[in-house]
Predict the 3D structure of the following.
Amino acid sequence: MLIGSAALPAKFFVVDSGADKVFKYSASGTAGASFALQTGDNDPRGAAASSDGSLLWILDKNKTVNLHNADGCNSN
C-alpha cells in the first residue's frame, strides 16, 4: 500500500523492521510513499538505492540482499 505522493522523487529510503515497511523521502526530507517489505526481508538492517532511485537493495540480518523496484516489487 502506498501512502503520500507516489510522484515524489525519492532521494533516500528508510527501512523500518518494526512497521515492516520502507519509507521514501525527498532531498528536502519530505515524506513520500511507503511500501510493505516483501517475503525474504525477514529482519532488514538497511537499504541502498541506485543513483536514480529505481532499484533498492534491502540488506537482511541473515546476510541476504533482496533487490526491489522503487515501488517495492521484488526484482530478484
Confidence is low (pLDDT under 50) at residues 1-6. The CA atoms of residues 40 and 66 lie 7 Å apart. Strands lie at 12-16, 21-25, 31-36, 44-49, 55-60, 65-69. Residues 12-69 form one domain.
